[in-house]
Specification:
The structure is a single chain. The protein has three domains: 3-198, Rossmann fold (3-Layer(aba) Sandwich), CATH 3.40.50; 210-268, SH3 type barrels, CATH 2.30.30.280; 270-350, Translation factors (Elongation Factor Tu (Ef-tu), domain 3). Helices cover 26% and strands 30% of the residues. It has helices spanning 12-23, 44-57, 67-83, 90-111, 154-158, 169-178, 193-198, 201-206, and strands at residues 3-7, 27-34, 61-65, 116-117, 122-127, 132-137, 160-161, 214-217, 223-227, 250-255, 260-264, 270-281, 291-296, 304-310, 316-325, 332-337, 340-350. The radius of gyration is 21 Å and the shape is globular.
Amino acid sequence: MEKIVVGLSGGVDSSVAAAILHQQGYEVIGLTLWLMKGKGQCCSEGMVDAALLCEQFGIPHHVVDSRELFQNQIIDYLVSGYATGTTPLPCSQCNKAVKFGPMLSYAKATWGIDKIATGHYARIGYDLKSDRYQLFTAVDSSKDQSYFLYDLSQEMLAGSVFPLGNQTKAQTRAIATELGLNTAQKPDSQDLCLIESYGSMSKFLDKYIAQKEGEIVDLEGKVLGKHQGIHHYTIGQRKGLGVAAPEPLYVVKLDPVMNQVVVTTREKGGHSGCVVEQMNWVSITPPATIIQTSVKVRYRSEAVPVTVVPLDSTRVKLVFVEPQFAITPGQAAVFYDGEMLLGGGIIARND
C-alpha cells in the first residue's frame, strides 16, 4: 500500500483531499503545521478539526511546530514589505518556504515518504519531451489557486498531489457531506490566515509598525489630507482614504521616503509595463527571447495579453497591450498559456 502525507489545515478542502486518497487505498498520514496562535484554519481550531478527521478515518495525525519558521519567513517578510511601501504576497512565499518544502523534507526524514498531498485547487502534469513537471489551473476556475503556487520548484511539484484539481468546490462540499465529515459545512478560510487571527491586515500591522502621520497627495504633490501610516494603504485602494474630491481617487503609489500616499483618478493610474524579479519558470524552460503570453498581476484579476522581455536569468520586463491599473510592487505577476501556468515572479517597480 502506497503511503502519502496529507497536509491538514482543518478546512473542508484538505479534509476531502485526505478522504479521497484514503478511499483510493493510500495509507494516509495526516500532518498539520502549527503556524501561529489564535483562530483560523492554520491554528488551534484547525488542529482540533484535523485531529477529529484523522480519528474518524483511523489514520495517524501529527503536528509540527512551525511557528518560528512562519515568523521568520512570513510575518517578518510582511512587516518589512509594508514598512517600505510594498504590498507583499505572503501566500506564495508560505507555500514554498513554510509548507511544501518543509513538509516534503519532514515526510522523507520521518517516514521515508516522498509524496505529499494538499487541498489546493490546481493540477500537475508531466511533459516527457521537456522532462518537466507542469502546473495547470483547476477545473473550477472560481477556486483556482495556481497563482499562489507559481514559485514551487520542480522537486516540489514532483512530490505533490492535488486531489481536488479536477473537481469543483460544490463537489468537494458534497463529498464532505456524504462522508459525514465534521468540516462539511465549515466556512471557507480567508485568503490570508493573518486576517482571520487579527481581524484585519491593519490591526495585524499595527502590532509591528508604529503609526506615523503623513500626507495624502495627488500626482502634482498637492496635499489632500493626512494619513496615520502608509502601511494602512494598498495600491488600487479607493475606499477609506478620507479625502474629498469631485471624482473617485485611488492609491497609485506609497512613498516611504516622503511618507506620502499618492492618489489620482483611475484614468491617470494606468501603467504600460513593469519589471518583474525573482522569476521562477515552472512549466517551461526560461525563455531566452521575447514571448507573447498572458499575465495575472493579482489573484482576483483576469489574465491580460503581455509581451515578456527577458532581462537576465531572474528578471523580465513586461509591456502590456493595454495600460493596466493598480500594478503593485510586491505582488506576483504570473504568466499563463491557456490553462498552463508558465511561471511567475515579484513585481519590482512600475514603468
